[in-house]
């Protein structure tokens, strides 16, 4: 496994052997979806493993977006310690295996280090050996299918991953994404997402949406999606002094929210968001 090979054989940054395109672990050893229990969800913008703890770090540590740093692996291990507590994880701002990450696919590394059997990396912006901008999905359950979607925008490089679980005719649909910064681009992207989820009853949208929930659910194409947000006080950015709610888990009314929180785990410039959900009894009877 990548995690074990790296821990056993690391002797500095060299390479060019890592994958430079989106990839997946395969599902041979992934357990079936356990529909009878609640599901623990987490979304986390990991900022390619850079530990940012103040605004001046955006300047003093900016070189880590281009060049490797030994402390990055230690930070990824701290992130993995958190991820092992969850069932399905959405990751944003991962590197798929370039110079800055020491040619390590960070999605694969975090899956193996946290003991989560299924992972899927979506490569959104390919800068060759300099950077492999990616989203990631980690899952303890075997999804029915996983699809990648390129989100519209003036600048390419934003994407969404959709994973479906459970009943083929009435699935639980998880959409993991990282939206653009501009409101115009967000509206185009959310219109695209709304069309993808319109026919499903049990939907979860999760990721770095770069906007507050009130704006997303009242002034974008999501206004008719009937989704339930976290409290407006669920601030996730910046991690050292959270003032803005940019990271979200939005769910359909059919899904019972058992717990939701901003996780106090400052190892990126964003804090992770967690939610426990349960499917309705009528849905569970179909299994």
TrEMBL record:
InterPro entries, A to Z: Endo/exonu/phosph_ase_sf (IPR036691), Endo/exonuclease/phosphatase (IPR005135), GPI-anchor_lipid_remodeler (IPR051916)
The organism's place on the tree of life at top rank: Bacteria
Domain Endonuclease/exonuclease/phosphatase: 42-270
One Gene Ontology cellular component annotation held by this UniProt entry: membrane
Alphabetical list of SUPFAM superfamilies matching this protein: DNase I-like
UniProt keyword terms in alphabetical order: Endonuclease, Exonuclease, Hydrolase, Nuclease
GO terms classed as biological process: GPI anchor biosynthetic process
GO molecular function, one term: endonuclease activity
Name of protein: Metal-dependent hydrolase, endonuclease/exonuclease/phosphatase family
Native organism: Marinobacter daqiaonensis
Higher taxonomy: Bacteria, Pseudomonadati, Pseudomonadota, Gammaproteobacteria, Pseudomonadales
């Amino acid at each position: 496994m990548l995690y074990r090979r790296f821990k056993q054989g690391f002797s500095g940054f060299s390479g060019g052997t890592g994958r430079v395109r989106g990839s997946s672990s395969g599902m041979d050893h992934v357990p079936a979806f356990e529909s009878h229990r609640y599901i623990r969800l987490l979304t986390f913008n990991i900022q390619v493993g850079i530990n940012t703890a103040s605004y001046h770090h955006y300047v003093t540590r900016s070189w880590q977006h281009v060049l490797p740093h030994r402390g990055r692996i230690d930070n990824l291990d701290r992130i993995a310690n958190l991820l092992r507590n969850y069932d399905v994880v959405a990751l944003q701002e991962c590197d798929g295996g370039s110079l800055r990450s020491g040619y390590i696919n960070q999605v694969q590394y975090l899956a193996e280090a946290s003991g989560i059997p299924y992972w899927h990396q979506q490569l959104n912006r390919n800068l060759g050996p300099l950077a492999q901008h990616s989203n990631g999905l980690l899952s303890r359950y075997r999804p029915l299918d996983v699809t990648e979607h390129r989100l519209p925008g003036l600048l390419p490089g934003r994407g969404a991953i959709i994973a479906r679980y459970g009943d083929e005719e009435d699935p639980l649909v998880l959409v993991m994404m990282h939206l653009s910064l501009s409101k115009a681009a967000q509206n185009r992207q959310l219109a695209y997402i709304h069309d993808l989820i319109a026919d499903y009853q049990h939907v979860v949208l999760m990721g770095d949406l770069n906007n507050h929930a009130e704006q997303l659910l009242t002034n974008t194409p999501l206004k008719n999606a009937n989704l339930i947000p976290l409290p407006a006080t669920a601030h996730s950015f910046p991690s050292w002094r959270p003032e803005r709610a940019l990271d979200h888990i939005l769910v359909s009314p059919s899904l019972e929210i058992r717990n939701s929180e901003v996780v106090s785990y400052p190892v990126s410039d964003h804090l992770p968001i967690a939610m426990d959900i349960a499917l309705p009894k009528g849905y569970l009877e179909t299994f």
